[in-house]
Amino acid sequence: MSENIKKESYFKNSTKKLLRNKLATIALIILVIELVIIIGAPFFTNYDPAKQSLQERLLPPSLSEQPLEDYQGEPIRDEEGNVKYSKFHLLGTDNFGRDIWTRIIYGGRISLTVGFAAILLGMTVGVMAGLFSAYYPKVDAVVMRIMDIMFSFPGILLAMLIVAMLGTSLRNVTLAISIWSIPTFARLVRGEALSVKQNDYIKAIKSVGAGDLRIIFIHILPNCVAPIVVYSTMRMATAILSIASLSYLGIGAQPPLSEWGTMVAAGRDYMFDAPHMIVVPGVAIIVTMLCFNILGDVLRDILDPNLSDNF
Amino acid sequence: MKKVKKLLVFLLAAVLVFSLTACGGGTTAPVEEPEESEEPEVEETEGEEGEEEVRTDLNMVVQAEPVGFNPLQTNDSASSRINVQMYETLFVRSFDGQSYEPLLAESYSNPDDQTWVIKLKEGIKFHDGTPFNAEAVKYSLERIMDPEYGSARASLMASVESVNALSEYEVEINTKFPDGVMLAKLAHANGAIVSPTAEQGQDIMSEPVGTGPYKFVEFVSGSHVKLESNEEYWDGAPFIKTVQVDIVPEISTAISKLETGESDWFEGITAEHLSRVENMSGVKLISELSGRVTYLGVRANSSKTGSTEVAEVREAISYALDKEGFVATQNGLAIASDSLIGPKVFGYTENSEDYGTGFDMDMAKQIVEENNLADKPIHILASNTSFYPEIAEWTQASLLEAGFETVEIEMMEWGAFLSETKDENRMDLFPLGWSNLTGDGSELVYPNWHSDNIGGGDRSYYQNPDFEAFVEESQMTLDMAERLEALDMANKTIIEDNGVYPIMHSNNVYAYAEDLQNVEMDPGGNFYIKLVTRK
Fold first, then answer.
1. Does the distance separating the beta carbons of A255 and B331 come in below 8 Å?
2. Does A164 touch chain B if contact means CB atoms closer than 8 Å?
């Protein structure tokens, strides 16, 4: 009973502390707004992210409808000689005349879904590996050497290798990014679990006759949650950047799917004529990453003041 | 305290990283400062020619990596651009595209319709010292004819019965039928004469030996090709002594090299970069209509999914493509066309544009719906260079709009694309281009769509007896009026059959440093460094 009350107050306390931090609150609000827009994407746009309209290509961001021009700067006219106007494109259009706002919010779906799925998968496997390594020295010898091998690959290269081996698809990108996150989670949890394992209450419950699994999942794992939460949040930022990088290199999301990294890659060719093509998705990536990082930082300070020295 | 320590560690790390990058920067620094790095070279030339401060080097930047340096076994423009500097052909197409002039040949005569007697220039030597003579010509041409050799352009010699050396400097070519395109074929870069000793003794794909004004120095895959002048060139040593061709697949970076003066020459500027190059100072931009056609190839046979083997699917695709719309994105660098044979190519007539279906999205939708084609998957294979990714994406969007539910794009690097598109059942659609080196329509339709060349240049596996009869007819006569009609019919047949979707005929667009002179490109897109001088 008393344990329950303590847990609740710990959670409440942390939330309070988080909301007291202005920066973290702003980051949280931005992420929530982003999430709402992305989940409800069809309600926030009238366009189809893949629909091309070549006459409306490369329009700059604007608050109103814009007159259409051909490549020589001459206005495009309809049969009656009236100048044709584009539809309303808040953030402009890309090289195929697709609405950039629409592509950003649909692209965010991919970034966030793939990022979230990859972290969840990598976290599950990594946490398991870390817990069991910490508890069984024999497992430790094998599993942690495998993790060491995985550590020796530079992150994005490992992901590229995996995608190259398995073929280009979003599922494989998710897999690649999750595999890449496994070793860090494993090492983090192993270190935490090792120190928890030394505590007297673990020895006590062991002497009472508790099974290994019970000890691992009910008594060690809850004590490792804080670093896991902190690290997952920060890892999310890296994951989003990785998806964008892989897409930028052409091995992530495939056309006609829109994805932030692909949008930056497409915009690169038009950097001088239509800078908004590269700036808009670039800002989307930066803002999202920044929010996750700030949140991670603040969480770390709140959940475990000592942790900051471990990094 | 801990924080101070951390800061110190961070600072130390930062210093280390910066000092490392500084070391790395040492190697790139000279490239960024051309004046400094090129001083020694200028001094060298001063010693040799007594001229002052005239650079005799040429730096080119290209996007696609050459496949190899054997003109008989390669047929991609990236390789041809470099091979024409090292190898020479018997004849060469004039810059206006109207006639063929002797190069390694001295003169020719036709004792009858099916015999060509070619007199060769005397006293020419290959880079390895092998004399250039009738035997070398016979050897090279027979190499192309040999099916086991696997020449990329066996089609060039398909009409040849035999090649005989009449004397040291006289060659006789007997053809199976009167061949109207013989000179054009002998002027084709892939019909170049190679050194027989070198060809037998080494792999000239990587160690090329020709008679041309430039000798091969080195090729570092993914980085650069180096050439040096052939001081014993039969027509006099060229002005430019060293040539470096940098391979930079990414177009923005390639154009930056032109901007900073690291590179003197770049070809293949796409529409979105046009204004950037136009605004550069010290760089000249040339844009002129060429014989180059860009098309969407289709597998009417041996398709990956089987979809495009259905005539209705091909018809729907034809209606769905808004070529005018797409070409408008090319900023005036191309003209939209429904004709495979372009205005700059022999075989184009005033009717040529009328054979296609034209764009009609409603019609496309109707065909898809009436024939229940929506569930037919379509697989597009595209190269990741030039505007091919854009064509692929535009095609995909058009077909999705027309009602096809599954339209996939697979992109790969240029070399892999060229070889994989030859495989059976590999894809349904593939955007590709053909810069017609000869300027003759026969040399477009025969190598790319005649079933003789399936697995070679023919990536479409198109088979239609009527079409093939017209193509053969266009080759088998010396009468130009008859040839024109046959080519027109061939063009009409394949377009009406939706055996290919022509998209546009493009300009040759290239830019070079203003101090270069005599830079000229032939309509086939080749340019000759030996003519170039610097102010």
1. no
2. no
